[in-house]
Design brief:
By secondary structure, the protein is mainly α. The protein contains four helices and no strands. It has one domain: A middle domain of Talin 1 (Up-down Bundle), CATH 1.20.1420.
């Protein structure tokens, strides 16, 4: 084989190898960028959900605080309940995005938050109804149950945060 042909073949093989490496490298880079974009979408969904939960939980605390006195100011309680309901709707919207972004482990953790949140909201709603009826006979029992449900909700939110961290970190 003459030297010119060998050089031409060598250049062709080198070019093909470089092209192949560029294609493989480009695909790897595109995949890495897509994975980063997806993690960012999940991060934004989780952050929005946690923020909405925080605002809603502060509103729930305000309702429970307004119910503490022996003779609660019912118009004030009702205003705080309306605020709570509006923020609860925001939580519902935010959790839908978390459910869409997944994965199932994250959606499951969000469902546990929703369940424990509903448990606490039921106690709060019952306390409001009893306050409107002027029935203070079970106030201590309801207050203790609300505190128990708040602890369960705190744990569920903490578990969600851990699941979110694992998911966003790419370990799940």
């Amino acid at each position: 084989m003459d030297a010119g042909l060998a050089a031409l073949l060598g250049a062709a093989v080198g070019s093909l190898a470089t092209l192949g490496a560029a294609i493989v490298g480009g695909r790897a880079q595109a995949r890495a960028q897509h994975d980063q974009w997806h993690r960012q979408q999940r991060r934004d969904a989780c952050a929005g959900y946690l923020s909405a939960l925080h605002d809603r939980d502060l509103a729930m605390d305000a309702v429970l605080d307004a119910l503490r006195p022996d003779g609660p100011d019912l118009p004030d309680v009702d205003e705080k309940v309306r605020r709570f309901i509006g923020l609860a709707r925001e939580v519902h919207r935010a959790v839908e995005i978390v459910m869409l972004e997944g994965p199932a482990s994250l959606a499951g953790a969000a469902e546990r938050v929703t369940h424990t949140s509903h448990d606490l909201a039921r106690v709060m709603r019952r306390m409001v109804e009893r306050a409107h009826a002027g029935d203070a006979t079970r106030k201590a029992e309801d207050t203790a149950l609300a505190a128990e449900r708040e602890r369960a909700l705190y744990q569920a939110v903490k578990d969600f945060r851990l699941a979110a961290r694992d998911t966003i970190g790419g370990t799940r």
